[in-house]
Amino acid sequence: MIKPLCYSLITLLTPMSVIAQTMAIKTTDELVSTDSEILFAYNKESKQLEAINLLTSLSSELALPKNAIGFDVATLANITDKQALVLTSDGVYKAQAGKPTLLFNYESVLNQLKIDKFEKVDFVFDANNDGLSDIFIPELASSTLYIQNKDGSFKPNQFNQTPKYEGSFSRKGLSLEVNINNKPVVIDFNHDGLNDLVFSNDFGADVLLANSEGFEQKLTSIDFNIELGELGNGETRKIKQIIDINNDGFLDFTTRQFKPTQGMDSLDIKIAHTLYLGSAKGFSNTPIPLLETQGPSELLLKTDFNNDGLIDLQKMDLDIGLTTIASMAMGGGSTDVDVEMNLYKQQPDGSFANKSSIELDLEMEVGMNGDDSEPALYLGDINGDSYIDAVYKYSKKHCIFITESKTHC
C-alpha cells in the first residue's frame, strides 16, 4: 500500500527555497524533471530558461537563440549532465550559460511558425536504445528523425508521413487543423533485435521499421483487426493508447468507445475502455474490458507501482458539474475540482484487479481553454527502495505517499 505522510509547505520546500533565492528568472510554470539531479525552470511568457542542480543548490540562466519555439531535455554524447535542446524556427540548439550552440538546421513547416510563447515541447527521445537522445522534426508530408552518433553529430532519416487534417467551413472560408507532433512508441515491433517506431492516431497506427542503416523511408500500416471509427450502432470507437502493457515485448493497445454527444451532455457521456493484448500471432480476438468512465474521468496506463514489471491501471474520477462550470466562468476560466484516484494492480493474464489497492483524494485546477490538466502528482522512487512513491503538491500542502515494501499493492 501507499502510506501518506503530509508536511507543511515550509518544511518540505526548504531545499527549494534556498535554490529559489539564487534563481535568475521568475516563473509560475511547472519545473521540468530529468531523472537526474538537474531540473529546468522556464517562463513561457518572457521566454527564459534556467538549469537547476539539486545537489549543489546552484542554478544558471541559459542563453536562448532567436525565434525559440520550445525546449526538451536530452542526453548528448560525451556530456554527463542532462541538456536543454531548444527548437527554433530554423534549427535545433543546445542551450547553455553562454552563447547557444547550433546542432543542425532543418527545413519544415515549423520554419513558417510565429509563436509568442516558449513551451516545453516533446521532440526528443531515444529511438535506437543506445542511451543517446535523438530528435524528431515533423513535416506536413514527411518527417525527419535525426539519429545522434557517438561523436554527438546527428544523421537525418527522412520518411513519408501523411498528416491527419480536421477542418470546418464558415463564412470566412475553410479552417484546417493538423496535428503533426506525433511522438512515437519505441518498441521492437517485428522482433529482429532493432527498435522500431510506432506512430498512432485515433483511427490506426503505422510503424517505421529499423534496419542496419537506420530506418526505412516509408511507414507500414498496422492491422488491428477491429473496426474503428463510426460503428453500425451509432457509437464511435477510437484507439486510445499504444503500449506494451505486460512487458512481454509485444505491442498492446486500448480503445475507447462512446456515443458522441455535444454541449452539457458531454459531462454524462459514458466511455467503454477495452484492452487488446498482442502476441506472436497478432492481437487477441478476446479483448479485456476495462473500467467504464463517465464524463471527464479518465483511465491511465503508464506506471508500474509495485515493481513487478507490469503497468498498473489508474482511474481518475473528476467531480465536475454545473457548479464547477459556473465557478470557471466566474473565476477567470479556471477552478479547483476534487479528484479521486484509484489504482488497480495488473494480474498475470493482463486483466486488472476488481478492487482498488490504493485510493487517494486529490485536487487539481481545470480550465475552459481545452488544455490537458493533471493533478500535481509526481511519481518516482523517493526513498531508494525501488518502489514507486508519490509526491502530491497543491496550494500550501505537500503530501508524500511512501510505498511500503512489505504491504505494497
Describe this structure in words.
The protein is built from three helices and 36 strands. The chain is mainly beta. The strands form ten sheets. Strands 22, 23, 24, 25, 28 and 29 form a six-stranded antiparallel sheet that branches. A hairpin with an 8-residue loop joins strand 34 and strand 35 (about 390-395). Mean pLDDT is about 80; it is low at about 1-20 and about 405-409.
Report the sheet with the most strands, covering strand number, pairing sense and barrel closure.
Answer: 6 strands, antiparallel
Structural class: mainly beta
Q: How many beta strands in the DSSP annotation?
A: 36
Write down the overall mean pLDDT.
Answer: 82
Q: What is the distance, rounded to the nearest whole angstrom, between the alpha carbons of the first and last residues?
A: 5 Å
Total domain units:
3
What proportion strand? over 45%
Would you kindly provide a brief summary of this structure?
This protein is mostly beta strands and 409 residues long.
